[in-house]
């Protein structure tokens, strides 16, 4: 359901507030209270808003035309500077692709270490511009030609099974090494100069931790927790890489979090595009052949196949200490394996740690890890050891605004939700440990679409331990490795692509849910995830607040409330679509970036209903991805103000502030993702049927660039992901 501004005020409390750029929690570091440094005049976006300064009778004229700009558009009085872009030198390697989460760790006045996630490869612009940016060719054409002659009829191959002297295997290996090198993590040292500019200092701490770390250099990642017992198996039901608890690389690194003791947590999200996700009941992986290497004009996946990477070693939270140049990362398996987005960090002296995260898939869950032992000093780096023992829980949301945390342990009862309560009427559940190897590999999980099948499942399996095999530690490890499907089995609520979990100073948890549409993997609970008028499924997303009962990080029950709903103002929503990263400033204001799918951005909307009178998708109305501010106090509480829009086909991610709050680092990810280089400044004129904030329809003509030339903005220049820093101009 949506929420009125009055209800928002009652929920959040109210005192005088302003639209201001304050002490953001982008690094999850609670900064001293201070007066706001910045205020801003909201920029004009592509559709009418309640906060755009135009009266409803002015909106038709003001929005009859709109030009999409291939740039980071900021309010008057702000500027940005490029800090690092794809291909720039970092230590003995290079700055990776699709930079995401950022964390600034101060090491002195106006100086710090900036940790950067590199999420994935955007196939079209990466292949189109690789030689131009990196300065060497890759054998794309040769491998494409070989795969087109593949007897399977698909542009894919099990490269792992090819002979080592096969020239195609060597060429695939070269491509995959470079693609995985451009993923993972990076640390760069930066400082602010006396003239207010930022520069890199290239300290000994600068380094890359990539998707192939450990493959040839011995810089393996480490692991803790019960899944280590599975990694160390010599024999099992499935594939074992024989590396024990050593792990080659990290990839799919999306959002993250920062601890009070100065370490950074990186979330491995869509790892399933590079290695098999499904596992056997003992936690061992499917064979690498189940995620073959694929290369086409618009696709590049299965990058782990040729190296025989074990799928069960990816999809974790990775912790690094940016200040330690010898730290190449630890995967803490008590935090669970799934498509992680972000880590909400709650650390209080005298209490257990509570780390929150979400699984960014349709039907994914919200999770909480609670440490066995308590925190003594929140700034002590020994706190990392608390991540090695504890319990992982998954959230159950009740439609009345209450909820509980379900432990993912062997003795937890089997109690899946009914498919009829889920958008798309589908839930995937683990198979029996007795399932034959071939049967398991072929189907992976049971796809249940009828309520009566749930009753049969519950009769067959009593507790979560019935679905997994091994000794006590191995069984717990297998449950954590298979966390999403285990959570389905015990009745955790299927949600709407949770993309961020941010802990406020008072302990409240804010969660962004990006999209309520279902797919072949599942969908959200329709009793919880509804549009402003009760619509289900609903595409445009929500922001939720979760409060632990008794404000206890280890509580097993909680309360929840939707605070903001995406969509058009005329429909009772706030004007944004598909919320992603959330940041909280010292006044509790919510800063948010959006994650509209590249293929939907700026797509023409000429009709709002089809021939049968059914509502059509209107995602294209919302323009480019953007940064928004939602005040939670004062006269503007519950309103959404537009701070920035990004370049064409990009996603803005990872906003993070320096300690003095005068500089904001931002990731600009995958500009030109669908169309690559913008050539000859080409653009298209498209039509959009908009609504004023009072619901009157009118037509807009919008100019849309085809492809991108950001960040240089020079004609025909290659689009490159980059990290920028935003500051206020001296004369404003």
TrEMBL record:
<keyword id="KW-0732">Signal</keyword>
<protein>
    <recommendedName>
        <fullName>Phosphatase</fullName>
    </recommendedName>
</protein>
<dbReference type="InterPro" id="IPR008557">
    <property type="entry name" value="PhoX"/>
</dbReference>
<dbReference type="Pfam" id="PF05787">
    <property type="entry name" value="PhoX"/>
</dbReference>
<feature type="signal peptide">
    <location>
        <begin position="1"/>
        <end position="20"/>
    </location>
</feature>
């Amino acid at each position: 359901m949506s929420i009125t501004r009055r209800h928002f005020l009652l929920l959040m409390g109210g005192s005088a507030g302003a639209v201001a750029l304050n002490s953001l929690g982008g690094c999850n570091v609670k900064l001293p209270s201070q007066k706001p440094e910045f205020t801003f005049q909201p920029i004009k976006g592509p559709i009418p808003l309640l906060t755009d300064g135009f009266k409803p009778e002015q909106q038709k004229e003001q929005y009859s035309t709109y030009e999409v700009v291939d740039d980071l558009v900021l309010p008057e009085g702000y500027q940005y500077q490029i800090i690092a872009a794809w291909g720039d030198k970092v230590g003995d390697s290079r700055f990776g692709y699709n930079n995401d989460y950022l964390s600034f760790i101060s090491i002195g006045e106006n100086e710090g270490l900036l940790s950067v996630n590199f999420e994935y490869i955007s196939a079209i612009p990466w292949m189109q511009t690789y030689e131009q940016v990196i300065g060497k060719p890759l054998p794309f054409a040769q491998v494409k030609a070989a795969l087109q002659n593949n007897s399977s009829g698909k542009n894919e191959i099990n490269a792992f099974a090819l002979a080592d002297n096969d020239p195609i295997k060597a060429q695939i290996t070269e491509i995959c090494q470079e693609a995985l090198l451009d993923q993972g993590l990076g640390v760069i040292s930066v400082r602010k100069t006396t003239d207010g500019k930022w520069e890199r200092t290239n300290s000994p701490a600068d380094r890359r931790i990539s998707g192939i770390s450990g493959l040839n250099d011995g810089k393996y990642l480490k692991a803790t927790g019960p899944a280590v017992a599975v990694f160390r198996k010599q024999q099992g039901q499935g594939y074992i890489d024989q590396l024990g608890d050593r792990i080659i690389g990290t990839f799919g690194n999306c959002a993250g979090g920062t601890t009070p003791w100065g370490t950074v947590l990186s979330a491995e999200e869509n790892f399933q595009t590079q290695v098999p996700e499904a596992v056997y009941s003992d936690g061992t992986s499917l064979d690498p052949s189940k995620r073959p290497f694929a290369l086409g004009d618009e696709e590049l996946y299965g990058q782990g196949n040729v190296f025989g990477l074990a799928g069960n070693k990816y999809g974790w939270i990775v912790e690094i200490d940016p200040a330690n140049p010898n730290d190449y990362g630890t995967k803490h398996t008590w935090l669970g394996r799934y498509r992680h987005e972000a880590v909400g960090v709650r650390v209080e002296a005298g209490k257990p740690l509570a780390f929150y995260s979400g699984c960014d898939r349709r039907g994914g869950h919200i999770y909480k890890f609670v440490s066995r032992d308590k925190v003594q000093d929140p700034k002590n780096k020994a706190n990392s050891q608390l991540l090695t023992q504890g319990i992982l829980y998954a959230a159950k949301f009740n439609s009345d605004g209450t909820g509980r945390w379900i432990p993912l342990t062997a003795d937890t009862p089997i109690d899946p939700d009914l498919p009829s309560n889920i958008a798309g009427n589908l839930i995937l559940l683990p198979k029996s440990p007795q399932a034959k190897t071939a049967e398991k590999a072929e189907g992976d999980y049971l796809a249940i679409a009828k309520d009566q099948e749930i009753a049969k499942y519950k009769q067959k399996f009593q507790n979560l331990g019935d679905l997994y095999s091994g000794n006590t530690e191995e069984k717990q490890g297998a449950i954590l490795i298979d966390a999403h499907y285990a959570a389905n089995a015990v009745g955790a609520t299927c949600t709407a692509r949770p993309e961020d979990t941010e802990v406020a100073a008072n302990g409240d948890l804010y969660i962004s849910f990006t999209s309520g549409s279902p797919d072949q993997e599942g969908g959200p609970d329709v009793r919880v995830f509804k549009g402003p008028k009760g619509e289900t499924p609903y595409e445009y997303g929500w922001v939720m607040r979760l409060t632990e009962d008794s404000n206890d990080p280890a509580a097993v029950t909680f309360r929840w409330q939707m605070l903001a709903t995406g969509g058009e103002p005329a429909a009772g929503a706030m004007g944004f679509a598909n919320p992603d990263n959330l940041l909280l400033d010292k006044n509790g204001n919510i800063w948010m970036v959006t994650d509209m799918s590249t293929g939907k951005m700026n797509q023409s909307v000429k009709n709002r209903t089809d021939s049968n009178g059914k509502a059509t998708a209107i995602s294209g109305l919302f323009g480019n991805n953007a940064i928004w501010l939602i005040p939670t106090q004062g006269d503007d509480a519950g309103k959404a103000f537009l701070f920035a829009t990004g370049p064409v086909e990009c996603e803005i991610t990872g906003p993070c502030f320096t300690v003095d709050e005068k500089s904001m680092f931002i990731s600009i990810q995958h500009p030109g993702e669908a169309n690559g280089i913008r050539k000859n400044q080409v653009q298209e004129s498209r039509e959009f049927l908009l609504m004023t904030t009072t619901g009157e329809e009118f037509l807009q003509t919008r100019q849309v660039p085809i492809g991108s030339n950001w960040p240089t903005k020079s004609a025909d220049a290659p689009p490159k992901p980059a990290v920028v820093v935003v500051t206020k101009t001296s004369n404003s």
